[in-house]
TrEMBL record:
<keyword id="KW-0479">Metal-binding</keyword>
<dbReference type="GO" id="GO:0005768">
    <property type="term" value="C:endosome"/>
</dbReference>
<feature type="domain" description="Pep3/Vps18 RING C-terminal">
    <location>
        <begin position="1003"/>
        <end position="1041"/>
    </location>
</feature>
<dbReference type="GO" id="GO:0030897">
    <property type="term" value="C:HOPS complex"/>
</dbReference>
<feature type="domain" description="Pep3/Vps18 beta-propeller">
    <location>
        <begin position="155"/>
        <end position="498"/>
    </location>
</feature>
<keyword id="KW-0862">Zinc</keyword>
<dbReference type="GO" id="GO:0006904">
    <property type="term" value="P:vesicle docking involved in exocytosis"/>
</dbReference>
<dbReference type="GO" id="GO:0006886">
    <property type="term" value="P:intracellular protein transport"/>
</dbReference>
<dbReference type="GO" id="GO:0008270">
    <property type="term" value="F:zinc ion binding"/>
</dbReference>
<dbReference type="GO" id="GO:0048284">
    <property type="term" value="P:organelle fusion"/>
</dbReference>
<dbReference type="InterPro" id="IPR000547">
    <property type="entry name" value="Clathrin_H-chain/VPS_repeat"/>
</dbReference>
<keyword id="KW-0175">Coiled coil</keyword>
<feature type="coiled-coil region">
    <location>
        <begin position="923"/>
        <end position="957"/>
    </location>
</feature>
<keyword id="KW-0472">Membrane</keyword>
<dbReference type="Pfam" id="PF26148">
    <property type="entry name" value="VPS18_RING_C"/>
</dbReference>
<dbReference type="Pfam" id="PF05131">
    <property type="entry name" value="Pep3_Vps18"/>
</dbReference>
<comment type="similarity">
    <text>Belongs to the VPS18 family.</text>
</comment>
Amino acid sequence: MLMDLLRPPSGKDIKISSDSKSLCNIFKVMPFVSLKVFSVTDRINAMLCQQQYWRSRPGRQPSFSLFPARLRRRSSLIWPLLFLSSSRSEPPRPPSAIVKSSPSILSFPCTRYLPLLEITESSIFICHRDSDFVSLKMDFGRQVFTVDLLERYAAKGHGVITCMAAGNDVIVLGTSKGWIIRHDFGIGDSYDVDLSVGRTGDQSIHRVFVDPGGSHCIATVVGSGGAETFYIHAKWSKPRVLSKLKGLVVNAVAWNKQQITEASTKEIILGTDNGQIHEMAVDEKDKREKHIKFLFELTEVPEAFMGLQMETANISNAGTRYYVMAVTPRRLYSFTGIGSLETVFASYLDRAVHFMELPGENPNSELHFFIKQRRAVHFAWLSGAGIYHGGLNFGASHISEDGDENFVENKALLNYSKLSEGSEAVKPSSLAISEYHFLLLIGNKVKVVNRISEQIIEELHFELASESLPRGILGLSSDASAGLFYAYDQHSIFQVSVNDEGRDMWKVYLDMEDYATALAICRNALQRDQVYLAQAEAAFSGKDFFRAASFYAKINYILSFEEITLKFISVNEQDALRTFLLRKLDNLSKEDKCQITMISTWATELYLDKINRLLLEDDSTSSDRRLEYQSIIKEFRAFLSDSKDVLDEATTMKLLESYGRVDELVFFASLRGQYEIVVHHYIQQGEVKKALEVLRKPGVPMDLQYKFAPDLIMLDAYETVESWMTTSNLNPRKLIPAMMRYSSEPHAKNETHEVIKYLEYCVHDQNNEDPGIHNLLLSLYAKQEDDSAFLRFLQCKFGKGRENGPEFFYDPKYALRLCLKEKRMRACVHIYSMMSMHEEAVALALQVDPELAKVEADKVEDDEELRKRLWLLVAKHVIEQEKGAKRENIRKAIAFLKETDGLLKIEDILPFFPDFALIDDFREAICSSLEDYNKQIELLKQEMNDATRGADSIRNDISALAQRYAVIERDEECGVCRRKILNVGGDYGIARGYTSVGSVTPFYVFPCSHAFHAQCLIAHVTRCTDQDQAERILDLQKQLTLLGGETRKESSGSLTEEPIVNLTPVDKLRFQLDDAIASECPFCGELMIREISLPFILPDEEQEVNSWQIKPQNHPIQKGLSLPV
């Protein structure tokens, strides 16, 4: 059954490719039961099954296994997994595996199932992914440094090689016969230069120096005639002697790497064997040196300078900062300062030079900088005591005791005793430095020493020619630009190549327990996992379980989830296990939804278990336990808040419920939006305020407000109503059942009726128009003892000011029935009146209060007859209800007549008195009535006279208006066309239907003195007024023109001019036209005011505007003619 589980998925074949069949005996492909399944129990069982499978097969235990990466596929089984098996026996290989001959690549065509793999013991796997497959590149025993013969007879017969320098794929050799041989491997060219021309005796090249760009070369020739220094540029065929350096042996040159160019060396410094430092600058175009200056000399301990290095940096607003390091056989000097080199070295005339002296003396003393991104980051000095090295940090300065800035960090001394196998230490004869290693020339071999661990990792051997055996390898040289190193003997050049020297440096730092640096240089997840594992194991061994949990959580590949959890379970560290789970959640991606949910659920249970254990523990340290309990509760709630979206809702709630954590259950329900559970819990606890706070949250459905309203208002009506009043978008109609339930309960007389308060808020503040709300408020008012509020409510006109809207929103018939039932007679009177049932209102009012009846009778204003009838009802009631003496009754009746404001006369109320009443009792009233009639007659006469006088005044005004005139000057202009008003127009006016004034064109004159031709005024008003008015004016003008033409035809048959008398239709049209165009001055009236809102350029005038635009024209310009611009 287990073997069935171990079979690979169908159709997923593995192909193993190798360059040798021996690889097939090393790597075996076996299916594997993944630990990535759906439950913790299943994962542990799967791991146990795997162990049982290997135990049942003695001798077949794999010596190394790689665990799978996190997979995206939800499956309890994955395949394949790569094993490094033992040599004694091998697990069976699936028949689908095929071996092919190709480079060292293992290709797997099913990337969704494959982990990221790497083995870094004796073999290295470098994994990379593409769209279709995962390939594993294998490097078996590949060395970091390799040696190749570059040139066997490099001196070309010009003696033997004495020195060498390299830069930018350019190698410059110096020979014993004074020749310089330059090999440019970049372009495949080489040439030689004889520096011994014109000199007698033996001439040998002492030292040769090449800049990092390979363009500039300095060489020192030593012979019987003394020393001489030459400068050679790559483009020159002949060297140039530096005459100012004659007699000085140059041992070291420091190039200005930041400023040097192909054409100029800029400022460089040279160190001589007599302890002097000189500055020099050479330009290729000048064919000679710009200057050579003396800078410094060792006077206290005169020694030869054996090595020089220089770094520069531009300081804002300060100039250039120089840092120079120089070595002698016993000392290392450092110079620093800002300004020029001359200024920097001149400052040491007044202060001591900063130096480091080590015991012993090394005649082959060398100083090297390792350059990275055009900046020195490390240095190494080949001293007599050992290799003194350190880091260079030019971003930070350290002030020494003598005031110098020192940029050296992490200084260390590598003792030569670590390099020798015997008891006697052997000093290297030459040194080269790479990023992580020292290359030390000892005898005829180069030992590669790791700079960090100070361990020898490799030894490089050279195939020397027989003629080179006596002296062997002479020295080492480095090409910082190309990243290459060279070794040379008397005849040959060897190239030392670097093959990814930093690939195993993470292991070095890991062995030194420098975990931070190891992590920083790790290249893939498997390397980082091993660092995390080492940190975790160290912390776990030290019983720092929480720190170990943090590191274990970062491991993804080399240790399974189950193994880690079993570690903590085995030592009963539940809290550390919880920490591991929480940190693991932080490292999982969003795609691992299943794993996130499982781990979060497990963490939830561990939290609950911790809380439960704290509650059950002894109470002897109650204060500490209480603080711890509060802290874990706070932490647990924060975890629930962060994990609310990944936790399974039903499972989590069951867990919380099973542990009795009601508060946390409510908290989690609130996080998941299960507000119904939260509100229900608070209502059960009687915590109305908390329930209302939940309901007021923005995301809570409004339906819950209506659902829990009956319970909430019964528990605390005040708080509930206050919450309703502060909640927006609440529909009061849906709260009617809750309000009815509250209203049905008895309340104290002095108690505020909260439902009435809320309904008043809805009606008055929110302008609610729902009839149900108004009817409910009405019914509650009707049941109150004090009906003042009830009457005020009835008198309010809530719909006042709205078009075609009602003045009230309650049902008046329902209100009338309710008032009659509750015996609210005054309210009934008001409702009758509101329903225009005035007679019923007055009749009912007379039963309650006659004064109320008078008010109701006086409300009718638009129906005089009805109003009189109502007042008669009141009068009849008043007269019939009087029980006093007859004369007193009559006086009251007469007084009542005065209250009607003349609506009722004495004759109207006489039928209500007895038939046998004495007329003397009414004499006063009758006389008063007759006098009133007389006054009314006189008032009518006066009004008639006033009307007659007004008509006469109007006639006089009309006559005077016909006689008004205006004086027109001869040169008066029309306001529109700017032509003179009194122009002779011939028959112009008659043709348009106007009366002619001689031969003058018809015109209009306004009181404001503006004058217009008739036709101009019509055109102006038509253009400025609206379309309907313009069409009306044009229609009137057309009709007037037609009628005017007919009239002329009738009069053309007579030779004598006779007045036209039948022009009434023409005059009517002319009056209408005058009213349309001349009712006001177009410049001073409303027409001009309306033109303010019009644009200056109308849409139909765009073509006219475009015609005024200046368009550029291309005119041919005669050649040679200069035109002014």
